[in-house]
Amino acid sequence: MVVQAVETGVEDPLVSNQVIISVEVFSENDAPVVTSFDWSIIEDGSTEILLQGYDADGHELTFSIDEDVENGSLTSPVGNTVTYTPSENYSGSDSFSYYAYDGIAYSSDTAVVSLTVIPVNDPPTVSDTSIVIAENDSSFTLGADDVDDVDLTISFVPMDSGTFFGGSVEDNGDGSFTYSMGTNASDQDFILYKATDEISESSLGLITFNISGGTMFAGRGAPLALTDEVDVTEDIVKTISFVGFDADNAFSEDAFITITQQPSNGTIDDEFVLIVDSVDELAQWTLTYTPDPDFSGADEIKFTINNPSNPESESGEATISITVNAVNDLPTISAIEDATIYEDESLTLIVDVTDADNELILSHVSSDANFVTSIENSILLVTPNPNYSGTATITVTATEDGGENAQTSESFNVVVTSVNDSPQMTTIDDQITLEDEIFSIILSANDVEGDEFTFSELSMPAWLNLDGATLSGTPLNEDVGGQTISVFVSDASASDTVSFMLTVENVNDVPEIDVLSYPGTVDEDTEKTFQFIPQDIDLDNNTLSVTVTSLDMNLVSSDSIIIEPTGTFVSGDTITVTLKPTLDQFGTTSIILEVMDDDL
């Protein structure tokens, strides 16, 4: 650093010379800093979470979990990444805390990650069941489960053609159902059923009616492909059952299904799985249906089945009607790469965020207060403080404006690389000094990085001298006037220049006399002539007056001194003086020449 003293309390303060003091700052480890933030996840999902930490010394950080989650599982950190999996079917709040270690010190505080597990509808479940029918119009009940504990609706497949062997099932409206044999005279009958909530449905369950006294199996010819209605949750893959029934012939492993109409708002895979039921006359094929991203609404699939064991092997066409129920989509933020900028630069990034269902509110936070962040219209501006260099973790969070207020965050690092700053000269006001007087001024500068610097001249007159930080000299008569002085300060790689006007004001100089000839010795009663030239070194065109005086007026009186030409003169005129000594006088006298300008 540079130190100098300046007088205070006076109109024209004097400034001392400058002294450079070197200060050595020893590095001391700074503890790392960790950041708290919020995170959202869909029920029964899994998510990778990036822990956020910053170390001012640039040390590599090791993260550790302080308090674990209570409603799920959390992996140990790998780098700065952990994976959180909520407990099965859990929705609600959860949290964990963590800290960081830089190899020397632990973070002084722990940070908390607040987790929100957003509920997703869980489909109900049903199971196969057998019911003994002792008489026509027998009543029975069915069981179904749902972990969401919501009301369920029971429906039957096929919905429009009764049971497989001609019976029928009627909903009694009180949770019970009545089976009527109708034209069925066999010892068994079958129907499929499922449970639905407001969003999703169970897989199919088989109801077997064991009929007391039945003896005859009623044939139906060609196999049947069963129409069905299926509920699917948006963006969730669903396994769909395609059911076939053949009253006369058991299904063999060679039975197959043909898709006659593909879905228009989703896709199905090509891997059909044949499930031959315990009832040989019933077969199910399963495949997975994937709705188009973010789609909700109606879709359908049409199919036929083929049972090679039946002479009339191919069924008629059946339709699977699909309802894709909308769910809230979590916001997403595209990955933001780490960035490096130079000191005193800003970083501008476009934050790519999407949410199919809601408007989003973007927020941002920096792990280092030396980084100022702002965001407008998805454009993030990161501006480090002037002359600052270092690293910060910037976290951008997208939160739904409405819906379930779900949110997600993305973090990235910004590294500011140090750039040498030029030392800065202190401005110098225009200066005025007098001819023949000492002029001195102390130059001053500052270097924000504390680098040593030196002063140098760029443009100045020869009478000035720069010694260290002191600019001084004595101007002469020929230096009168104004001149621009330029000096600069420089460190190892940069410089700064300052200029000011220095005006040297004239101080009146005494005229001078150049004697061309001296009177010398003269004989009594004889005239003597000599010459001189008056000089005004100020060259200001002043008029000059000349007087010639004899110290012995008896020998040479004032009347006997003739000056030619007469009147006033200017610098450089030649003046002739004639001396006429008094008659009959002899001796010695001194002649005094005097020249005056207008300012004397």
From TrEMBL:
A single Gene Ontology CC term: membrane
Dystroglycan-type cadherin-like domain segment(s): 331-423, 426-511
UniProt GO molecular function: calcium ion binding
SMART domains noted in UniProt: CADG
InterPro entries registered for this protein in UniProt: Cadg (IPR006644), Cadherin-like_sf (IPR015919), Ig-like_fold (IPR013783)
UniProt xrefs under NCBIfam families: tand_rpt_95 (NF012211)
Record protein name field: Dystroglycan-type cadherin-like domain-containing protein
